[in-house]
Amino acid sequence: MNKEFDVIVIGGGHAGVEAALAVARMGKKSALISMELDKLGAMSCNPAIGGIGKSHLVKEIDALGGIMAQAIDATGIQFRRLNLSRGPAVWSTRVQADRHKYNNYIVNFLKSQAHLSLIEGLAGKILTETNKITGIITESGETILSQAVIVCTGTFLGGLIHIGEKQIKAGRIGENAAYKLSESFHELGFELGRLKTGTPPRIDGNTIDWDKCEAQPGDNPIPFFSHNSSRENFEQAKCYLTYTTKATKEIVKSNSHLSPIFSGQINSSGPRYCPSIEDKFYRFADKETHQIFLEPEGNGTDDIYPNGFSTALPEDVQHLAVKTITGLENARITIPGYAVEYDYCPAHQIKPSMETKKIAGLFFAGQINGTSGYEEAAGQGLLAGINSVLYIEDEKPFVLDRSEAYLGVMVDDLTTRSTTEPYRLFTSRAEYRLALREDNARDRLYSYAKKYGLISDDYLQSFESLKQETEAEILKLKKTRIAISKIGEIGKRFKRKESINLEEFLKQPGITITDLLPLLDSFEETFSNSQEVLERAAIQIKYAGYITKQQREIDKFKKMENETIPEDFTFSNINGLKNEAKEKFSRFQPLSLGQAGRIEGITPGDIAVLSVFLKRHKESIK
Questions:
Q1: Is the backbone peptide bond immediately before 221 cis, with ω within 30 degrees of 0?
Q2: What confidence score (pLDDT) does residue 622 get?
Q3: pLDDT, tens digit, for every residue of 40-55?
Q4: Is residue 185 one of the residues assigned to a domain?
Q5: Which of 173, 186, 214, 432 has fewest C-beta within 10 Å?
C-alpha cells in the first residue's frame, strides 16, 4: 500500500530527529523511517553532548526550536562549563548523558509530535522524475511518495565494522547497514567516498579501581543548555581522569600491524581530532602516556566509556592493553572497540540550503556530508528540515552566513571546501567568534525561529523580558560607583581617583563576573538576582569596543556576500581565469563572491577576474 507525505526523513539519528521535528512543527506531513524505532536519537559513540565549539551549535539548535538541548538537560548526569579562564567567545558547556534515558526521551517526544509518522524499515532506493524527488522505495518493496526527501544515514550508508581482521556489515555494532541506498546514489550520478570513525571498548565499572583515578565533578549551579529547562536538585555523577602507561604503548605499538587502520584493511580517512589509540602512539611517538576520561553511560548502568581509547585492535589485544591503564588493571571489557567505514557524498554536491544540486527536493544532512559528531549532525538536520518545507512552499531558502551562527560557519565550510576527512566544528573555525557566543544565540536566531513558527510565543515573550532586564542592568552598572579602596589591587590602576563606576571596573583586564558578584550586595541599588542577566550585561560592557570593531569586519564580509552569483552562471567561459579556478568554481558553484573567495586554492586575482565578468554578465541581462 502506497503512502504519501510532504517530506520523508531517512535515518533516526540526531540529524534525522531534528529534521523530522522541524518539518512537523512547520505544519507539514512528515515521515521518519528508521531501522529500529526504539533507537531514535541513540548515542552511537560517546555519551555526552557539547564541548568546545559543539556547545555553541547546541545553543543555536535550541534557539531555532530543536530538541537536543532540552533532551540532554532532562537526562544529563553531569554538567560542566569549560574554558572559563578565557574569553566568553570560547566558553563552552558539556553534559554527560544517561545514554538510555536520552534515547527514551527522544523516542517518546517524537511519538507525541503532531504531523509526524514513524516508520520502521530500511530505505532502498530514491525515486525521481526529471531530476526531481518523488519518494522512496524501501528494501521490502514498499513505495512511499513525497515532495522532498532528507537523507540522514549516519554511518549506516555502506557501513562496515572492523575489529582486527574481523569485518561485519553494520553501521553500529549489532545492527544492519544500508547498501542498496548507496547503489541508488551511484545510479543517480552522485560522487561517493569512504570515511571511517571509531569507538572505544566499554568497561564494567565494578572492575575499575577508582581510587587510582582523579575525580572530575560537575558544576553548580547547573549550566543547562536550554533556557527553558529546569530540574529539581539532583546528585551529579562523577567522571574520572586516568592515563595510559608505558606498558600500554608497548602493547599497542607491538600489535599495531594487526589493526585494520595500519594493516591496509582500511584505506579511508578518520577523524583527525579524535584519533584511535594506535594512531596516537604512532603520530605522537615521543609521548609516553595519554589521558583517558572514564565516563559513566548512565545512572542505571555500570558501563563506562573510556574516552580517548578508540581502537580497532583485535579483541584479545584490547583486553591486554586496557589492563595496563592506571586503575584498570582488573578491568573487564563488556563491548569491544571497533572502527566503522561508511559511504558519504562530498559536500560540494549540496547547496548551502542542504539541498543537492543534482536532484531538486533531495536534501543531505549529517555524516553523509562528511561531518562527525552528534551536534554537527543535529544542526544540519534542523536546517535541512526547515529548507525542505521552504522548498515545498517555493519560498527563499533559509541560509545562515558565517557572521550569524556557527551553523553558518559549518555549512559554509562544507559547501566551499568540502572535506576528505570527518569534519568537526571548533571555535577556531569562526573568524567572527566574539559575535557568536553561547550567551547570545537567542539574540541572533530567535527572529528566524519566530518567522518559521519553530518556537512558542511564550518563549519569545520570556526572551524579550530577559533583554529588557539586561539593558536595565547595564544602566545600573554604568551609573553605580565604587570606592577605589574597596577593589584591592585593581585600585592601583586608577591613580588620583577616589571612585569608579562598575562599568570601568568590569572593563579591566582579568576582571570577570565572578569578581563583580561579591561587591553587589554592598550597594543601595538593587541588582538582578539572575546569573544569566548579570553575565549578559557584564559581557556586553566588557567587550563593547571589541564587538563594535568586529561588527565593522562583519559589514565588510556581508558586502562580499551580497555580490551574488546566478546559479546558472558559466565559469568555463571566463577569459583570463586560470583553468584550476574554472574547475573549482564549476565544481563548487559558489553563490557569492565571498563564498568563491573561500574556496581552497582560489587567489585574490581569481576573484578580481570573476568580479569583472560577473558585472558584465549582470549588465548584459538588464
A1: yes
A2: 65
A3: 999 999 999 999 999 9
A4: yes
A5: 186
Q: Over pLDDT 90: what percentage of the chain?
A: 81
| Domain co-membership, 141 together with 42 | yes
Contact 341, 159 (CB under 8 A): yes
Angle (nearest 5°) at CA 501 between 536 and 491: 110
* SS3 readout for 446-505: HHHHHHCCCCCHHHHHHHHHHHHHHHHHHHHHHHCEEEHHHCHHHHHHCCCCCEEEHHHH
Domains identified in the chain, total number: 4
The helix or strand, by DSSP H or E, that contains position 95, with its residue range, turns out to be strand 92-97
Instruction: Look up the CATH number of the domain holding residue 595.
Output: 1.10.150.570
Residue range 372-394, pLDDT digits in tens: 999 999 999 999 999 999 999 99
Q: Which residue has the higher pLDDT, 411 or 566?
A: 411
Pairing assessment for the beta strands 193-199 and 338-344 based on DSSP bridges:
antiparallel
Q: Which long-range contacts (CB under 8 A, 24 or more apart) does 495-500 make?
A: none
* 266 plus 383 within the same structural domain: no
What distance in Å separates the CA atoms of residue 598 and residue 614, rounded to the nearest whole number? 17
Domain boundary among 339, 370, 402: 339
Within 10 A of 496 (CB to CB), how many other CB atoms are there?
Answer: 5
Which of 339, 372, 394 is the C-terminal boundary of a domain? Answer: 339
* Helical segments of 323-456, H only: 374-392, 406-417, 441-451
What secondary structure does DSSP assign to 104-133, as a single string?
A: HHHHHHHHT-TTEEEEES-EEEEEESSSBE
CA distances from 578 to 51, 571, 607, 609 (A): 42, 11, 11, 10
Domain that holds residue 234: 202-339
The pairing of beta strand 30-34 with beta strand 116-120: parallel
Question: Closest Cα to residue 447, out of 503, 477, 404, 498?
Answer: 404
The per-residue b/e assignment along 545-561, b for 16 or more CB within 10 angstroms, e otherwise, is: eebeebeeebeebeebb
- The answer to whether 419 touches 70, Cβ cutoff 8 Å, is no
Task: Locate 53 and state its grid cell.
Answer: 565549539
Do residue 42 and residue 26 come from a single domain?
yes
CATH of the domain at 393: 3.50.50.60
Rounded to 5 degrees, φ, ψ at 119 are -125, 125
pLDDT in tens, 276-307: 999 999 999 899 999 999 999 998 899 999 99
Q: How far is CA 490 from CA 494, 499, 509, 517, in A?
A: 8, 12, 10, 15
Q: Does one domain contain both 413 and 524?
A: no
Residues 295 and 231 in one domain: yes
**Same domain (yes/no): 131, 193:** yes
73 assigned to some structural domain: no
CA distance 614 to 620: 10
C-alpha grid cell for residue 15? Answer: 540529524
Residues 39 and 156 in one domain: yes
Distance in angstroms (rounded) separating the CA atoms of residues 123 and 144: 10
Contact partners, residue 432, CB within 8 Å, separation at least 6: 402, 403, 550, 553, 554, 557
Please tell me whether residues 35 and 171 are part of one structural domain.
yes
158 within a domain of the structure (yes/no): yes
User: What CATH number corresponds to the domain at position 258?
Assistant: 2.40.30.260
CATH of the domain at 500: 1.10.10.1800
- d(CA 179, CA 183) in angstroms, rounded, equals 7
User: How is residue 341 written as a grid cell?
Assistant: 567505514
- Cβ neighbors of 377 (< 8 A, separation 6 or more) are 13, 14, 15, 152, 154, 365, 366, 367, 371
